[in-house]
Automatic annotation (TrEMBL):
Residues 179-440 form the DUF1996 domain. Keywords: Signal. The keyword Signal applies. This is DUF1996 domain-containing protein. It comes from Rheinheimera tilapiae. Residues 1-23 form the signal peptide. Residues 32-52 have a biased composition (Low complexity). Residues 31-52, 471-496 are annotated as: Disordered. The keyword Cell inner membrane does not apply. It holds the Pfam family DUF1996.
């Protein structure tokens, strides 16, 4: 039986389907038959066929759970179709297994009917369960398994800096030539990406698979199954003894992946931020579940440099800042060892309020603009809904195994998405961009917004500002794919 997914957001707008009642009129094929019986006086009276028994439920959620989704499996003999009703929502056609998400912290009830081949509708199977908050309401309840208690209280964010911010660590999950946003379902269609977050992410990933399955390499684990990915950063590969450029199996110059400084909670190097993009933090809404977006231009190149307010590079020794020292580079600067190369990617934070994606994966969102009536940043009228701003911040160590042996610098580094060659005078990395797919537990993300951002706190290391913090990072597969065509891969799509 084909699997069907039911999202509560869809169920809210579904057209109610009336429940078929035994004995209702219809075509000859669906009209109930009527049998007769003889009474004691010798007369006959019609008898109504027995209502079919309820479907048998073989899998259901635990009676008390903190999971914001539920999977239910059911079956019935001689079932032509099934109908489901969650809580007070409209009755709709369904098939087994059925998945509901996201589910609020409350009592839930699911009723399931089957329709027999003769058109009769069964008695309902009823499933009831309680979804509890991930944060304990009293001493008898436990916090979610992916939360830890903390006595550290975040400080207020600095003036002329972040308006309110939440920072987390992630470890590299895996790498591959796929992109479930741009090339869903296609293998080896994209350039080489490094993926963070949900460890099961692949070309077939959907919001259902992200939200309901898999561990994650980011702090928060199952509370943060979102997927984050960027093009791999590559360095020319040299012989460690002679300093000569190595060749790959095809006789072309060889490349190696430059690892980012991520993971390892003791390093306290946060790579993903959630912050305020507009000045009126009280107006910011949480990010809708399933939102997909891309920041930056994968086709960027010399002569088409990108806006440093969206993507940028710098050496950490530059001590760059937006307020005091806006020293940024459109391409990968030649930073000297033991410096670090830093990249920043800022995602749009104004939503049209309607679409979770768009044809170019950008048009449903926009960047804040300067207000015409005040000095602050606001959302444009075309995209009036301010949401939490997502940004990526990576650092890459300029170390002997990846630096240029002559200059001991990052000279020659490139992104797997670069459609041009980097040289001593032409900086690589001008195609800098990132992808993000939201699968946060809604309650966790709402707490980040309500406490860290709206209260203008600087929440480090997964600290939620309410006495809890997200648990630590966990390692992913960290596979090392072959570098094909300078990272551009098998596809002819080059830029993405």
């Amino acid at each position: 039986m084909k699997k069907q997914n039911i999202n509560l957001a869809i169920a809210l707008s579904a057209i109610a389907m009336p429940i078929l009642l035994t004995g209702c009129g219809g075509s000859d094929e669906s009209t109930d038959s009527v049998s007769v019986s003889t009474t004691g006086s010798g007369t006959t009276a019609p008898t109504t066929p027995a209502i079919p028994a309820a479907p048998v439920v073989s899998k259901q959620p635990e009676s008390v759970t903190q999971s914001p989704y539920a999977k239910v499996e059911f079956s019935a003999t001689d079932a032509k179709s099934y109908r489901c009703q969650l809580n007070t929502e409209a009755v709709s056609e369904c098939v087994s297994p059925v998945i509901f998400y996201p589910l609020a912290a409350q009592q839930h009830q699911l009723q399931i009917w089957h329709v027999a081949a003769d058109g009769r509708q069964s008695q309902p199977a009823v499933v009831r369960w309680q979804v509890n908050s991930i944060f304990p309401a009293n001493s008898t309840e436990r916090p979610h398994a992916d939360l830890a208690t903390t006595t550290v209280q975040p400080a207020l964010s600095n003036d002329n800096s972040w308006r309110g911010i939440f920072r987390i660590n992630c470890d590299l999950s895996h790498s591959g030539y796929v992109d479930p946003i741009v090339y869903p379902g296609k293998t080896d269609a994209a350039h080489l990406h490094n993926f963070y977050g949900n460890v099961l992410l692949d070309q077939h990933s959907t919001i259902e698979t992200l939200f309901t399955t898999g561990d994650a390499s980011c702090q928060g684990n199952t509370l943060n199954r979102s997927a984050y990915w960027v093009p791999a950063l590559l360095a020319p590969s040299y012989d460690a003894d002679t300093g000569q450029r190595l060749l790959d199996k095809n006789g072309d110059p060889a490349w190696k992946v430059v690892p980012a400084v991520v993971g390892g909670d003791d390093q306290a190097h946060e790579v993903f931020y959630y912050s305020a993009g507009v000045d009126d933090v009280s107006s910011i809404q949480s990010i809708p579940l399933g939102l997909k977006m891309i920041a930056g231009n994968p086709a960027g190149k010399p002569g088409q440099e990108q806006d440093s307010a969206i993507v940028r590079w710098h050496c950490q020794s530059w001590e760059s800042s937006d307020g005091k020292n806006p020293r940024w580079s459109a391409g990968i600067p030649q930073c000297l060892a033991p410096d670090r190369v830093r990249m920043d990617i800022f995602f749009p934070s104004c939503w049209n309020g309607l679409d979770l994606d768009s044809a170019d994966h950008k048009s449903h969102l926009a960047y804040p603009v300067k207000s015409t009536t005040s000095a602050g940043m606001v959302c444009p009228g075309t995209h009036p809904v301010p949401i939490v701003r997502v940004s990526f911040h990576y650092a890459f160590g300029v170390k002997p195994d990846v630096y240029d042996p002559k200059t001991k610098s990052s000279q020659g580094w490139r992104l797997a998405s670069d459609s041009y060659d980097s040289t001593a005078t032409t900086l690589g990395g001008m195609s800098l961009h990132g992808d993000w797919f939201n699968a946060w537990h809604p309650e966790a993300l709402q707490k980040i917004l309500d406490v860290c951002i709206k209260k203008r706190l600087d929440c480090h290391d997964g600290n939620l500002g309410n006495g809890f913090r997200l648990n630590g990072t966990r390692p992913g597969a960290q596979n090392t794919p072959e570098i094909i065509n300078k990272g551009l891969g098998h596809g002819a799509h080059g830029g993405h």
